[in-house]
Write a structure and sequence with these properties.
The protein is of the alpha+beta class. It is built from 23 helices and 20 strands. Bound molecules: zinc ion. The site of zinc ion has 6 residues, from loops.
Length: about 650
């Protein structure tokens, strides 16, 4: 089977993003310009503290802002974002997002304090570099080897060239580890020259997170990150969390040599590090750390200079906002009185003790407030859309820049709280079993007098600036008839204005990607080569889990197959059972009555997953030994499908 999506969505994007141009990005309408202008009165733009915070300790930057991959392709290019040099936002960008985008454009090597440096704005995340007794301790080596390497080189151009002796991964998201081989090589780790530390559960979650639903998540992630949008005032300006994803290069992974025991204090290259776990918050496996020598607290991604995602719109399980808040409070209680500087693995530092405590309290209360007040409304019978519309942060939070929704939003986070407790159903039986989207849309348009009548009314509403409604109603017309060009164009125009008004980088990305696809259709997404490091770290059982979710149930109808599967180098045995169009497996079991037994090495399986060979070719080459009925084995393989990478989002599936 081909398994092109067995890759974390971010690494897929990193390998696949190509810039393209809009067919016709429109200017902002008067309504949008007025909306964005009004934002200037709603928020404390006179407060420019964050800019001096972000620039403080600047040492150096890349002369041209550019990082290239080994093959010469561009991984990172800050010069694309030179348009952000202007202080005032254009009409096509929400001024609050513009501000965040300008802050995230401040890039290079920064000295946080003597012996502690950060690389910022050279990838989505930050790389922290600490000078230990004999060498360097690196926290979170970015998404790509090229950017991590360039970051370390920039450091070496300005500081003594000491070897890297330790790497710490704060959590399992790929923007915090995918570049590890840009800063250390695996032989040095194996030889014991470099230690790699991570919280418990790191490898499992790093590898598994986006495997099972990976194809859908990576498709949806192109919207969240605005991945196909060209940088510009009418295109991509920022993700909210950081400038963008680095592109190209292979996602690398070196397994931890040491799991950090919960809340332990360790000495790493002579440096005392006090760890605080925060599992099940922003990530499944996550930790914060305090350095007494520097009086610096690194909160990883548990806190950030914005409102993070309780739910990520690329699609993911909902996070626990209450636990998230709790761990921020634990950090405040445990380290608040000893912390002079707070750093994170995204964004810029918070620079003094009083500010640090205020920042932690705001972040703590923001997540708890969203949780508590959403639940309060749920208990009063509010529906998700009501809560998202009516819930407002108290002014004491709302006016804090670092509580603004640049990545998560109050709206979609509040809906996430509903989802966590109530699930998809709003308890109204009219919504229990409605017609599916296309049939629903066809009836809807028919009852409204046909597509032309709907479009005509929607044009009036567009002129009145009612873009949310126009986007909704044109979506109905497109779902009733995706070939209706007028509906696609008007829908695109409405989404575009919503994108220009959005404060969140994620919403802007989603709206503008939707507009682009309504105008031009989905762009080919080159899923690219798999990362061997990630593939090799995949548990064999997960390979069968993935096969099971790709089983073509119709092809499997009435089939009953039992297949023994042996991996000869890792000594793993599995018994696969196909019955009722359902594939199940048992580890450590073989069946004498199996129709076929297949034996191969795990590395052969890896080459198949990496698409370096195929099952039939590996059989021909003698790398897979099939005993019993080969038709049973090949029959099973033929039932496994490859999902469409570019399925419709703003239009029906083909
Ligand atoms: Zn991150």
């Amino acid at each position: 089977m081909r398994s092109r999506t067995l890759v974390h969505c971010l690494s897929v994007l990193a390998a696949s993003v190509s810039l393209s141009s809009f067919a016709a990005p429109n200017p902002a309408t008067d309504t949008t310009a007025a909306h964005n202008k009004a934002v200037l009165q709603q928020l404390p733009f006179a407060d420019k503290q964050a800019f001096s915070d972000a620039e403080r300790g600047f040492v150096a930057k890349l002369p041209d802002g550019k990082v290239t991959n080994d093959d010469g392709s561009v991984s990172w290019d800050m010069s694309d974002y030179a348009f952000l040099d202007k202080e005032d936002a254009p009409d096509t960008v929400n001024p609050s997002l513009w501000r965040q985008a300008r802050l995230n454009a401040i890039h290079g090597l920064f000295k946080v304090t003597d012996g502690l440096y950060q690389i910022r704005g050279m990838d989505l995340a930050n790389m922290t570099i600490i000078e230990g007794e004999t060498g360097l301790i690196i926290i979170d080596p970015l998404l790509s080897p090229a950017t991590a390497k360039a970051g370390l080189e920039l450091y070496y151009q300005n500081r003594p060239k000491k070897p890297v002796v330790a790497v710490l991964y704060t959590h399992n998201h790929v923007d915090h580890w995918g570049g590890v081989k840009g800063v250390v090589n695996e032989e040095d780790v194996k030889a014991g020259k470099v230690k790699v530390y991570a919280p418990a559960g790191f490898m499992e979650h790093a590898v598994s997170e986006n495997v099972i639903a990976g194809n859908a998540m990576s498709r949806r992630a192109t919207y969240q990150f605005g991945a196909m949008l060209p940088p510009g005032e009418r295109g991509h300006v920022d993700t909210g969390l950081g400038k963008a994803l680095s592109k190209g290069g292979e996602t690398t992974l070196i397994a931890p040599t040491d799991t950090v025991p919960d809340n332990a204090t360790l000495t790493i290259d002579g440096l005392e590090v006090q760890f605080q776990m925060a599992h099940g918050t922003e990530a499944e496996s996550e930790m914060m750390m305090y350095f007494p020598k520097f009086k610096v607290l690194d909160t990883g991604e548990v806190t950030s200079q914005h409102m993070h995602n309780v739910y990520t719109i690329r699609g993911a399980a909902v996070r626990d906002a209450s636990a998230w808040s709790h761990y921020i409070d634990v950090a405040l209680e445990r380290f608040g009185d000893q912390t002079d500087i707070l750093i994170g693995q995204h964004h810029w530092p918070v620079w003094n003790q009083e500010e640090t405590k205020r920042f932690l309290a705001v972040q703590r209360d923001m997540y708890k407030y969203i949780h508590d007040q959403s639940v309060r409304m749920i208990n009063k019978g509010y529906l998700p859309g009501d809560i998202a519309e009516e819930l407002k942060l108290p002014e004491s939070l709302d006016q804090q820049w670092y509580a603004r929704g640049y990545y998560g939003t109050l709206s979609h986070n509040a809906k996430a709280i509903y989802q966590r407790y109530m699930g998809w159903y709003d308890a109204n039986p009219a919504n229990l079993n409605p017609l599916p989207p296309e049939q629903n849309a066809a009836k809807f348009v028919e009852y409204m007098g046909g597509a032309d009548a709907v479009i005509e009314q929607a044009r009036n509403d567009y002129d009145k600036g009612e873009y949310r409604w126009v986007a909704t109603v044109m979506n109905q017309v497109v779902f009733a008839d995706p070939s209706n060009q007028a509906a696609r164009e008007l829908g695109a125009d409405a989404l575009e204005q919503l994108g220009y008004q959005a404060e969140a980088g994620t919403w802007r990305g989603a709206y503008l990607m939707g507009a682009m696809e309504l105008r031009e259709g989905p762009k080919p997404r080159n899923v690219g080569s798999l990362s061997p490091d990630v593939m090799q770290a995949l548990e064999t059982g997960m390979f069968f889990d993935l096969m099971a979710v790709r089983l073509d149930a119709e092809k499997a109808a009435d089939k009953h197959l039992v297949i023994n599967w042996q991996l000869t180098d890792t000594n793993e045995n599995y018994r696969l059972n196909l019955e009722h169009s359902t594939l199940t497996y048992r580890a450590d079991e073989q069946d004498d009555a199996a129709q076929a037994s297949v034996a191969m090495t795990r590395s052969t399986l890896d080459s198949i997953l990496l698409r370096q060979t195929t099952f039939p070719d590996a059989v021909k080459a003698g790398k897979i030994k099939v005993t019993g009925d080969p038709k049973a084995f090949f029959g099973l393989l033929q039932m496994i499908e490859v999902p469409e990478a570019n399925f419709g989002i703003v239009e029906p599936r083909k």
